[in-house]
Description:
The structure is a single chain. This protein is mainly beta. It has an 8-stranded antiparallel sheet. The protein has a 6-stranded mixed sheet with strand order 8-14-17-18-6-19. A 4-stranded antiparallel sheet has the order 1-24-3-28. The protein is elongated, with a radius of gyration of 32 Å. The chain starts with 12 loop residues before the first strand and ends with a strand.
Amino acid sequence: MARQRRSSTKRGVPGRRSLVGLLVSSLLFAGSTAADRPAGASVVPEAGVTTTTASLVVEGRGWGHGDGLSQVGAYGYAVRFGWDWQRILAHYYGGTTLGGLRSDWGDLMSVRLKAFDDAGVVAIVRAGGGLRTSANPGAPAMRSIVAVETGPATYRVFGRNDTASCPTGPISLTVLTTANGWTELTTPPGLVSGTAGGLPATRLDVWVDDVDVASAPAADLLVACEPEDDGAERAYRGSIRIVNGTEGENRVVNRVPLESMVRGVVPRESPAGWADAGGGAGINALRAQAVAARTYAAAESRYSYARSCDDQDCQVYGGAARRTDLGGGSFSFTGLEDPRSDRAVADTAGVVLRRGPGPDAGYAYAQFSASSGGWTSGANFPAVQDEGDPFGPWSGYNTWTASVPIAEIEADWPTIGKYQSLEVLRRNGLGEWGGRVQQLALRGTAGTVTLTGEQFRSRLGLKSSWFRVGGCAGVSAAAGTPTAPSGYRALPVPVRILDTREGLGAPAGPVPAYCEVGLQVTGRAGVPATGVTAVLLNVTAVAPAGDGFVTAYPCASGRPWTSNLNPPKGGIVAGSVVVAPDEAGRVCLYTMAASDLVVDVQGWFDAGQQPFDPDGPRRLVDTRSGAGPTSIAGVLEVTVGTGGPVVLNVTATESRLPGFVTAYACDKGRPIASNLNLVPGRDVPNQVVSAVSADGRVCLYTSAPTHLVVDLLGRYRDGGSRLRAVPANRLLDTREGAGVPVRSMTNVRVPVAGRAGVPPTGASAAVVVVTATDASLPGFLTAYPCDRPVPLASNVNYVARLASGNLATVPLAADGSLCVFSQRDSHVVVDVFGWFG
Length: 837
């Protein structure tokens, strides 16, 4: 189906999707490890979820089947990322090309109007008269026409020209043949034409003479009177056909020009008001919707009598206008078209998605859904990560929570007896929790039922098949605000505030998969209780149970679709995080895989002194080059100069044993903290902010032999620039569009100023996350201002095929850009989170 039916069962509450208030985080999922984009579905059953409560708590992602375009995702890409409609379509409908309609396409679209299903009486009216019917084309034009089925596929047709009001009571042959004013138009009486399934098949057409149905106002169109007591009068462009299906079923069809039909679909599927969002950028979401709707209609061929239908089973279509004061005689309609969506349709007129080049290429089956939840399903088009989806305007679509009564499960599947557990057997492997449920087992005292995820979802009215039962409760969404301009204050030495290995700050033991742990960061460890706009943390994941990610965020703002570090199974990975605490002073850490977590607080931002002064990147030390010891296991002293805390990029390389590195001011005692963790055979970088001794030195302690590379990025001191946060946003993803990676020993220019909340002028440096993914060979990335030579420095050290990212504070060129140099062929992702100026 084009767009999954929205369940009327109100089970859920709005889900978490806010990114506002996040100061600096790391890579959006599209640049994360293979854990976030596995090659296939897991075949290992998940642990059964048991309950003794009266309901199951179900947490889910997305609304609908998730194939093709996500409507809220299209909005997010248009408004937050600045994509045009062509790029949105290319993202969601891989393997297709934009083209025109094939030469064999007819002039009209035919749409089944489901409100008239099995109606034995159909009434059509028009205030201005001019109605004609195929029952007797030569009869005088009428203002009201009624067709009554008198036998299998046999109709008698009546008309009158003195009124154009929909009938308010029952219509019968007795009424029509005895009441004054009705004239039988059927010639011969009891119209029969053609056959279908061995039954007579009537095709009775009603149309309006001398009207341009594509441009006429609603009052000039014919009006179909819905037969239900609470039905509506709907004005349709085109004509109405009364027809029978292959089994004799009564159907009513609107035969309408394709572009006119799309005008009626777009504002029903994607609100026309989106066009005004983002200073007008939202029109691209409507344009993408128009092309998807037009293509889906062109590809449809559902019935013997109509190509498509008018509800969520196909795509929602309400005609041109409607009114509900039946029989009132006043044709004051509520328009169902809108000038803004009309513009989107006109801007893309005739454009469809084709399954290949050439005039004979078929149409793509361009399904769409309300929300993908963050990953498309990959049913008919290549699955893609949907980073626009969390930014959509509809609360409770991207993420949701529902409560399912146990009694309802037992009633829907009585063969299980009393419910005992639900076990997910297989997922599609795309996104959080392993993606959409493909197969599950319901176990009870009397037996087990095996279902598809879609069967379970559909029966219980859940929004999608991407869900999990049990686990940790999420943090409810709340609006956040960007932080004020802030300076940095370093703690004399870092302080450890969480270590789940030892029960420090949380119960001892790994944080369970898909769970959060909350930390109070203000009013402790030397951080003030008030006035703090952000904190600088070093977060370490220790021995995760599987490949995954860790995300830090303000607890009250809800978990965003970002990650700070991407540890592999069994590894130890650290990353610097600058994050705004919520109003209560809390920061939450979410982990995809069960993992021990360690957090050291290094300093905080407030409205006080020590703004940032970019002074790099430039290399201070490389122990491999003779500038220092050939390898160290102890303390390396690095002269950085006096004048405030320094921002360094420290890389450990050629490590011989596992271990860690700790940075601190040399005139202070070494703290119980760490900045990066040594992995034998791997280059491990991390951005480090360290206090400086009175004589201008930073000490780097290593617990095992390793080479160290130290690059200076800048320092916090009077006269510098203050930090201003922006909502997390993507500036570059080379996998999108043409999908060409940055080639070996070349760079890519990334405009920053004037984008994603960074002003056109006045920004001296940007806080970004730079990520390499799908690299051909091991190598490094260097971010630097484009108007300077490539420095002898690096920000990210990557290995082939795995994603590697790092926080970077990068000075901007005079034109507001930064460049990223790649040593090897690699895709590059750049996200911005703040700027200094």
